[in-house]
Amino acid sequence: MSTETPQTSKRVTTRTLQEMKDAGVPIACLTAYDFLTARLLDDAGIDLILVGDSVSNVFQGNPTTLPVTLDEMIYHTKAVSRIVRRAMVITDLPFMSYQVTTEEAFRSAGRVMKETLAHGVKVEGGRRVAKVVEKISGEGIPTMGHIGLMPQSILKFGGYRPRGTSEAEAEELVDDAMALQEAGAFAIVLEKIPATLGARITESISIPTIGIGAGVQCSGQILVTHDMLGLFEDFRPRFVRRYAALADAMDEAFRQYIQDVKSGHFPNESESY
After folding, report:
1. Cα 64 to Cα 152: distance, rounded to the nearest angstrom
2. Which residues form the catalytic set?
3. Are 185 and 137 in contact (CB under 8 A)?
4. CB atoms closer than 10 angstroms to residue 13
5. Residue 115 class from Cβ within 10 Å (0-12 exposed, 13-18 middle, 19+ buried)?
6. How many Cβ atoms are within 10 Å of 19's Cβ, its own excluded?
7. How far apart are CA 200 and CA 22, in angstroms?
8. Beta-bridge mates of residue 89
9. Which alpha helices (DSSP H) does the chain contain, by range?
10. According to the model, what pLDDT value does residue 8 have?
11. Number of C-beta neighbours around residue 43 at 10 A
12. Could you read off the pLDDT of 222-261 as tens digits, one per residue?
């Protein structure tokens, strides 16, 4: 029996993820934006932590991911990276940090790598960002792709409907996945697409796929941690399984604290000096 624990096992790398895909071992991923969450995830044995631009929604309270800046992503990634010992840490490049020129994209990715100790970056888009992926990954920075529903393009699509439901759009997504692989992406997030398409893309490319609402046959799965813990209640898509109801538990705790303070029951004698 192995004596390895999440705390003592080796660092997860791009090679680890590829070996997991090749061996049929599912890859478990979640998001984090702070030191404490990252420590708990790493201690639990998560394989990959994404410092997602979803921080714009669940941390900053914005309606979309568009407002978050590169400086803010770097700030949150620093908090995550400094505590993680095993999991791979990937950071979203936010809107307008990689779309203008490939040189600007490389500078943005370079800042993330130099300033945060992250292990790679993620960009949204398929064939249209292939040159960006080729530049960044070609310079030695692990780069993850993201196709299907793309939150940075949500205003263009006008909503959060599933992608790839038509034959033409499905073919385009398969083509996008192939283009990202050829450009050097080490993995691709597939968001909110039919499970059959998720399986098809996973079988069509050699690199890992990470699904979020893309079916069980992807190489791995990711959720926003605030969603799966029942902390963020404004967004409840069908692909989120709630493993806790922390918003309810926190509400109860806050109300009990307020009652105890106002009634004079906190602090008691044992809680005083």
Report:
1. 8
2. 191
3. yes
4. 14
5. middle
6. 12
7. 16
8. 49
9. 14-23, 35-44, 55-58, 70-81, 102-116, 130-138, 154-157, 167-183, 195-204, 225-228, 246-263
10. 47
11. 16
12. 999 999 999 988 778 899 999 999 999 999 999 999 999 9
Chunked mean pLDDT (size 10), the chain, 273 residues: 52 98 98 98 98 96 95 98 98 96 97 98 97 98 96 74 94 98 98 98 98 98 97 86 96 98 97 96
Sorted by sequence, the CB contacts under 8 Å of residue 123 that are 6+ apart come out as: 93, 98, 105, 129, 132, 133, 136, 143, 144, 145, 146
Residue-level pLDDT at 142? 98
Distance CA 252, CA 246 (A): 10
Taking the C-alpha atoms of residue 31 and residue 228, their distance in angstroms, rounded to an integer, is: 10
The answer to pTM > 0.70 is: yes
Residue 7's CB is within 10 A of a number of other CB atoms, namely: 10
Residue owning tokens 């205003």: 155
Please provide the size of the chain in residues. Answer: 273
